[in-house]
Amino acid sequence: MWSRHLPFSRLPYRLRIPLGMTLAVCLSAVLITLVTGWRAAADARVETIAYIQRAMTLITAQARPMIRSDDPWHAYTLLRDTVALLPGGRRARAAILDTAGRVFASSDPLVFPLGVQLLGSELHGQPLWDAQAIGTQTQLDLPGGGMIGIAPIRSTDDQTMGFVLVDFDAEALTPDWLHLIRPVVWGAGLAIVLLVPIGWWVGRRMTEPVRALARRIHDLQQPEKTVPAPVPGSEDPELGRIARALQALQTAWSERHQAVQRALYSERLAAIGRIAGAVAHEINNPLAGLFTAVQTLRLHGSDARARAYALDIVEHGLQQIRTTVAALLPQARGEERPLRHSDFDEVLTLANAVYTHGSVHLSVDIECPQELLVPASPVRQAMLNMLLNAMKAAGPGGMVGVAIHADTERVCICVSNNGPRLDRAVFLKATRQENLRGGDPLGFGLWVCAQIAARYEGGFELDPDDSQQTRLTFWLPNRPFS
User: Fold this and answer.
1) Dist. CA 112–CA 121, nearest whole Å
2) Is residue 470 within 8 Å of residue 402, measured between CB atoms?
3) Of 89, 110, 345, 379, whose CB has the highest number of CB atoms within 10 Å?
4) Can you name the residues that pair with 2 across neighbouring β-strands?
5) Which of the 8 DSSP states describes residue 36?
6) Closest Cα to residue 393, out of 364, 425, 360, 424?
7) Taking residues 3-14, what's their average pLDDT?
């Protein structure tokens, strides 16, 4: 889980592979440098010890005549010159001991004074062997990294004449890291400079097929690209399988896209047909009243009052048809004329003329003491739709009630009927905009009422508390409209 929070894991795949190869090159160079340096240091220590052992052999050969002639001065000169040639000579000391293990001569008399017993005693906290126990060249490694070497001096007849002791501090045996690491570091640096660009290039080449496949998958999500680019092939078996699967997916996507386009075209045609049927239904409502008004003119055209009343119905009915058509246009503006009290009587007359399936008992209660500021045509349309739906639901012999109330805040129209009660779920479905996708164009009237209420910041509601009848309430704020 913790690996998900690393910055490297958040990088794109096309960068992780090149960066991974680059880091692998750098880590390899660092590891090679460390291993090579460690090995060089170990070899340098071994080589230094071998050099010291050869120097002890040389001192052993040169010290024989000096011991025979009892010449400590020349022995001192030999030790001093030899130690100066050894690696880390300033940290090294040498001494020639007699057969008892006492100092005969030393390269540093202050450290190893003449006559001091060394063999069988302690040096640097480490006990040394007795003179009789040393038969061959021996070496004692000190805890701090130093070293003490002792070699016997033998005569030509293999008799012990004395001993050679060398004492090296740890610093004398410590390798010169700067000298050892410098060529390794240069080699690692050159390797990084040369291999990092190569590793980056190889990583990019490795991720290119995956990047191409990712681009093709991204193209499938772009709806404007109806013909995606072909899927690139790959010689790699795994990438080849992915490419073939993506090709099949792309083919299926193309077929699906074409099927969706055909379905959308068919849906548009069906939606146009349903809207046309709904609009025709809405226009037929005032047309029936217009035919009634025309018949009245033919029969009573000589009567001036009947003629004026019929012409008013014709005019308002035509305006009602124009508003119904304009309601389909989002940019259409409502009629500028405010509602009048006479509009209620005309809507009731139009509703009675439209509904010819039998007598319906209609009760009307109008209470409008205030001035009406709401637009006339939308309110007439909503009231006519509510009346026609109520009359149809009540049926022959049914009862329909209309209550109209206006005050300073709102104009409210309430229409109720004693027919089958309208279910709230059906009402909500009919008043949603998705109702246009349904198969019943007669629900368009309720949808229009809801749209008019929403447009003028009013409301269109079903009374859920009335269980005996269906009561619909439409209201608009009683204020100047624009």
Assistant:
1) 13
2) no
3) 379
4) none
5) H
6) 360
7) 56
